[in-house]
């Protein structure tokens, strides 16, 4: 991550340094006195040196990122930016530095007092284009690099746009050369700078500002209008890149995703009633506020089912005006039960009822949450845990706790806690008792967890058991947003602590403490290492290996840029340079083996979640997974990281594949995996009950 931040920061700093250097270099010949001319020359050279140092740092960051994460992470910077930066840098070394020596020699030759006007020869030397032109050209290249970085973040590399940027660079360079050459000729003819009248100068500056403002307003209005999501559209239709509706129409008998339901006729083994409602709750900070809850509980009720059971859940919306759904995060339900408003169902509006039915095939820790405007609804409290227990429960009694990690925005800032309001949460556990802690990250950011006072094992990730996990001591866990870790240990005779940050435990800290009695504190939370699933456990037979032949291979490149989404100017998060509804549609056929490359060249984490499937992580930054097979449904792709993952297309329908930082999904970071021959009859937009994420 550090090298990505260095890359971004150096691009901005280079534009700032080169901008000041260009301003100073262009004004050397206009200095009123010899002393001022010498001072501006020195300042220009200092700023040129600073710019050169920043450029060196940027090059080092580019090389480091390419070496660790691969060419795909730096492709746009290397191809689009570096030519515009290195060519002027070479010109500065070749032309501007020798010209600076000539200017300094002319200043010294004049031997005038510092407050006297410079000699005509010194002015002519300072106005020579070979001095100022490379410095100003470096600023143009740095400025266009900033524009490319923040406005043109696409993959595959948009050759036409890159050529357009280079064309602007070349045209600007030509105009600059003409202007500097003409200034030199005017100065040679007049013998002194021609300032013009004050009114003329104000007229020129005002005209430039007015022209720039007009261009900006036109660009803003047209961009905002073009980005608006239609009042009525299909999430998997022609507006979505790939035109899935055409694929469905081409099939002999296209199938609606509404038909891909769970068993409808059999009696359920488990039945749950969840009522979405507005509820006043007390936050860990002590603040009273309105929440949206299931059954008035925050989090919602913890649902327990047995592996292989048929589950029926009745969702009733009492008074959540925008409508709600339930998505079963991590459970590979049939497509119609997936709970995505506008794709697999309509939002459940107030006083409406919706029935979900599915078979809980895989034991593990999962969670559920609304998937309608989820960035707001999950934040407001519409989430809970569902645990699928093995069909054969462990014979020995155990302490089995769910630890839900979630952020609440309060008037005093974000509050995150594992305990009650500003105090420890204590749980009694007898020595020798097997303990399982189920960590669920319902927040938008990676969650750190420290476990103190006992060796522990991570036995499952996202509901999938790990093979031969080993003991961990002093390792910090990092849970992806939406991800889950199951941790087990045998209770010792002393206290065990769980905290979100390092440091000593105290009675007024929001943390979890397990102890044989209602007393005692564990050792201070600390971590020497970060838990790495790629090398944890031991290898075992898996579905995908080095010799697997794949039917499809897709690449997803994540980035950040400034742009418009649904009529608003925002810092958008992109997949292959695009945002919903123009994000990619990845087509598959049932039974195919699909490989995906996930690369993050932005500077924010992207926890990617593919609905309806589990992925196997094959490699990270080109290095194969060496531990237990790593199976997940939510994978955090940190800045500067590149993963290869694979899945089997064994669950027909149309599935979201989106960032589970739900604020990112809310500004368009959502794509879809669609099976050929299927279509969605549902729509989203202002004219429907289903609103974009």
UniProtKB/TrEMBL annotation:
Pfam families: Cu-oxidase_2, Cu-oxidase_3. Keywords: Copper, Membrane, Metal-binding, Oxidoreductase, Transmembrane, Transmembrane helix. The keyword Metal-binding applies. The chain crosses the membrane at residues 12-33, 45-74, 80-100, 130-151, 163-181, 202-222. Residues 276-392, 570-674 form the Plastocyanin-like domain. One of its GO terms (molecular function) is oxidoreductase activity. InterPro entries: Cu-oxidase-like_N (IPR011707), Cu-oxidase_C (IPR011706), Cu-oxidase_fam (IPR045087), Cu_oxidase_Cu_BS (IPR002355), Cupredoxin (IPR008972). The keyword Metal-binding applies. PANTHER family: FI03373P-RELATED, MULTI-COPPER OXIDASE. This is Putative multicopper oxidase. It comes from Thermobacillus composti (strain DSM 18247 / JCM 13945 / KWC4).
């Amino acid at each position: 991550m550090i090298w990505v931040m260095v890359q971004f920061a150096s691009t901005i700093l280079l534009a700032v340094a080169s901008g000041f250097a260009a301003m100073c270099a262009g004004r050397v010949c206009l200095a009123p006195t010899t002393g001022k001319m010498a001072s501006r020359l020195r300042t220009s050279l200092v700023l040129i040196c600073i710019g050169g140092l920043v450029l060196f740092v940027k090059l080092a960051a580019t090389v480091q990122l390419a070496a660790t994460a691969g060419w795909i992470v730096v492709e746009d910077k290397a191809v689009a930016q570096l030519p515009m930066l290195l060519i002027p840098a070479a010109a500065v070394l070749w032309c501007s530095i020798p010209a600076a020596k000539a200017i300094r020699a002319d200043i010294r030759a004049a031997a005038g007092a510092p407050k006297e006007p410079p000699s005509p020869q010194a002015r002519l030397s300072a106005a020579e284009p070979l001095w100022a032109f490379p410095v100003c050209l470096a600023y143009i290249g740095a400025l266009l690099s900033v524009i490319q970085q923040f406005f043109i973040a696409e993959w595959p590399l948009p050759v036409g746009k890159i050529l357009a940027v280079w064309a602007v660079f070349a045209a600007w360079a030509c105009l600059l050369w003409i202007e500097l050459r003409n200034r030199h000729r005017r100065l040679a003819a007049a013998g002194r700078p021609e300032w013009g009248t004050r009114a003329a100068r104000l007229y020129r500056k005002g005209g430039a500002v007015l022209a720039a403002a007009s261009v900006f307003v036109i660009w803003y209005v047209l961009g905002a209008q073009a980005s608006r999501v239609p009042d009525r559209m299909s999430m998997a239709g022609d507006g979505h890149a790939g035109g899935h509706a055409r694929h469905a129409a081409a099939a002999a008998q296209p199938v609606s995703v509404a038909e891909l339901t769970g068993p409808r006729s059999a009696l359920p083994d488990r039945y749950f009633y969840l009522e979405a409602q507005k509820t006043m709750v007390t936050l860990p900070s002590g603040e009273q506020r309105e929440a949206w809850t299931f059954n008035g509980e925050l989090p919602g009720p913890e649902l327990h089912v047995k592996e292989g059971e048929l589950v029926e859940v009745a969702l009733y919306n009492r008074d959540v005006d925008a409508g709600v759904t339930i998505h079963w995060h991590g459970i590979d339900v049939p497509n119609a039960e997936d709970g995505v408003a506008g794709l697999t169902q309509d939002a459940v509006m107030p006083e409406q009822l919706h029935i979900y039915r599915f078979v809980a095939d895989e034991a593990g820790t999962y969670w559920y949450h609304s998937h309608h405007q989820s960035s707001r609804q999950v934040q407001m409290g519409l989430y809970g845990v569902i645990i699928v227990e093995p069909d054969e429960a462990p014979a020995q009694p155990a302490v089995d706790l769910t630890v839900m990690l979630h952020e609440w925005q309060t008037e005093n800032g974000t509050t995150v806690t594992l305990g009650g309001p500003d105090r420890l949460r204590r749980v009694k556990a007898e020595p020798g008792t097997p303990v399982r802690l189920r960590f669920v990250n319902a927040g938008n950011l990676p969650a750190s967890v420290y476990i103190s006072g006992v060796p522990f094992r991570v036995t499952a990730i996202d509901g999938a058991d790990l093979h031969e996990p080993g003991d961990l001591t002093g390792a910090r866990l990092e849970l992806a947003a939406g991800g889950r870790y199951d941790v087990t240990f045998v209770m010792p005779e002393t206290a065990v602590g769980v905290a979100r940050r390092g440091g000593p435990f105290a009675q007024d800290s929001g943390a979890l403490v397990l102890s044989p009695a209602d007393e005692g504190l564990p050792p201070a939370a600390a971590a020497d290492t970060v838990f790495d699933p790629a090398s944890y456990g031991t290898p075992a037979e898996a579905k995908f290996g080095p010799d697997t032949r794949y039917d499809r291979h897709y690449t997803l490149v994540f980035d950040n840029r400034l742009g418009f989404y649904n009529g608003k100017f925002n810092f958008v998060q992109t997949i292959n340079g695009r945002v919903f509804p123009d994000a990619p549609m990845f087509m598959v056929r049932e039974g195919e083996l699909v490989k995906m490359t996930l690369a993050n060249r932005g500077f924010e984490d992207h926890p990617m979640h593919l609905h309806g499937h589990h992925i196997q992580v094959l490699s990270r930054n080109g290095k194969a997974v060496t531990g237990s097979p790593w199976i997940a449904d939510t994978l955090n792709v940190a800045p500067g990281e590149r993963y290869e993952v694979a899945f089997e297309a064994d669950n027909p329908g149309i599935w979201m594949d989106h960032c589970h930082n739900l604020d990112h999904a809310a500004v368009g970071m959502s794509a879809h995996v669609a099976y050929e021959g299927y279509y969605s009859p549902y729509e989203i937009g202002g004219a429907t009950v289903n609103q974009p994420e």
